[in-house]
Amino acid sequence: MVTITHFKNQCYALGNKQSNLNINSFNMWGRNGVFCCFPILCLWACLNAVPVAVDKTKVSPPAEELEPPKSVDTGLHYDRYLREVVDFLEKDPHFRDKLHNTDMEDIKVGKLAKELDFVSHHVRTKLDELKRQEVNRLRTLIKVKQDLDGERGMTVDHQGLLKQFEHLNHMNPHTFEVDDLDRLIKSATNDLENFDKDQHEEFKKYEMMKEHERRERLKTLDEEARKKEEEHYEEMKKKHAEHPKINHPGSQDQLKEVWEETDGLDPSDFNTKTFFSLHDTNGDGYFDEQELEALFTKELEKIYDPTHEEDDMVEMEEERLRMREHVMNEVDTNKDRLVSLDEFMAATNKKDFVQQDGWETLEQNPIYTEEELREFEEHLIGEEQDLNQKTNDLVRQREELERQQQELSAQKIQLQQAVEHMERLKSQKTEPPVQAKVNAVPSAMEILPGDSQSLAQGHQQDFPAHS
User: Fold this and answer.
1) Which residue of 88, 270, 313, 449 sits 20 to 30 Å from the alpha carbon of 251, by its own alpha carbon?
2) Any bridge partners for residue 339, and if so which?
3) Which residues form a coiled coil (predicted)?
4) Could you tell me how far CA 206 lies from the centroid of its own chain?
């Protein structure tokens, strides 16, 4: 039976390894990538180890246990919810006791979830609260998705969104039930176990894109430059392939090399049990995936050097993954993604542990076929055409907006001119009346002979007689 400390350390270690991957993650609204490769059960199991009889008078104070970092993320979009549920279930004595007597397959098929009915009221209340918080988080995500797609004029696929949330029963948003725990276990198990497959697919796309870009670049060169580029490419391939023989992962030769060059021990003293203890770095009695991959570092250094142009570090991580998968398939007999001491010792007693051929590296195993590359390029062309169409649509929309803006500007100018004209007319209507005509009477110097009578009459009109 595997301890809970081991399982948690496994997830924490794999969470840390996530940050070293050089391949882009999946979008949670689309392909929903997963960044940890161990089942949900790596979060659970018994707390106590088998007691060992010791002389208490000679025992030194136990060294302080180093707690794994609590911020490590499994990579699942419901990671926080998952960890909080597990943490509270561990606090219930009945549930924790059931973990001691339930094997992994029973947990996967939902037998453990039924024990939820027997946990304490306090734990159930807290689980209800955690579920309500998770439902609110999902509702917020859906609302944001709807707003974003609405702005782009896209139709929201509600069913597609709900498929992302199979880790809980969203039809009952208030209480955490047996069905919720069963869904959580199955969803996390499936997501985490698909990690390797997803990584292989992403790596294949990475390699095809690299080759596609190389071929497209060649099309832009003249004949002489293209010939030089091809010669350089072949030279780099040949140089990368010229490396020492790679020992078969998990073979005696491979482990002995680690024993001698990494551990600095005499190869004639090689002992498999001692080797296991040396490289079980957390001392839990198992090789987890990170501890296993660490054993392949010497082999990978023979092939890849970050300072060499011909060596691709993304390919190195894929090679490491292939080596680990191979050893797990050969050694992990109970398929719990762990190598126990018993499994390790059984593997080292096999005939092929000593008699193993060399390891075929990536360049000896084509990642994709020409047909797959052609389909990939056709897909890229389709995506490019869609982008061009959307770009043209946006250009037309922009031109239409600019035209409308010009029309509005012209209308604004006409309106301003009309307002100014109305203001001028209004000001003319409100000017003061013309001054009295006396101001326009000619001076005495300008009166001609014979006009005295007219003048007198004018004076009579202008100046009324006094009474």
Assistant:
1) 313
2) 287
3) 178-231, 373-428
4) 16
Q: Class of 197-204+231-368 per CATH?
A: mainly alpha
Name which residue leads in pLDDT, 135 or 26.
Answer: 135
Angle between helices 313-331 and 195-219 (to 10 degrees): 150
Task: Determine the Cα–Cα distance for residues 240 and 234; give it in Å rounded to an integer.
Answer: 10
d(CA 455, CA 452): 5
Task: Report the range of poorest mean pLDDT among 79-93, 288-302, 369-383.
Answer: 79-93
Q: Taking the domains of the chain in order of start, what are their residue ranges?
A: 4-50+66-193, 197-204+231-368, 371-421
CA distances from 451 to 383, 436, 462 (A): 103, 22, 16
Write out the two tokens for 204: 């294949």
Residue labelled with tokens 């005939």: 351
Question: Which of 321, 328, 309, 305 minimizes the C-alpha distance to 361?
Answer: 321
Instruction: Please give the pLDDT value at position 214.
Output: 96
**pLDDT above 70 coverage of the chain, percent:** 72
**CA 104-107-111 angle, 5° bins:** 140
Query: Which pLDDT does position 467 carry in this prediction?
Result: 42
Give the rounded distance of the alpha carbon of 335 from its chain centre. Answer: 28
Cβ pair 103, 120 in contact under 8 A: no
Cα–Cα distances in Å, from 372 out to 207, 316, 351, 362? Answer: 11, 22, 39, 17
Q: Rounded mean pLDDT of the chain?
A: 78
Residue 381: CB atoms within 10 Å: 10
Predicted confidence band of residue 242 (pLDDT cuts 50, 70, 90): very high
Which of 29-33, 73-77, 94-98, 285-289 shows the lowest mean pLDDT across its residues? 29-33
Of 244, 250, 270, 246, the closest CA to residue 259 belongs to: 270
φ and ψ of 50, to 5 deg: -70, 130
Question: Which tokens belong to 54?
Answer: 């010791």
H/E element, 323:
helix 313-331
- For 197, the token pair is 């497959």
Judging by DSSP bridges, how do beta strands 339-340 and 286-287 pair with one another? antiparallel
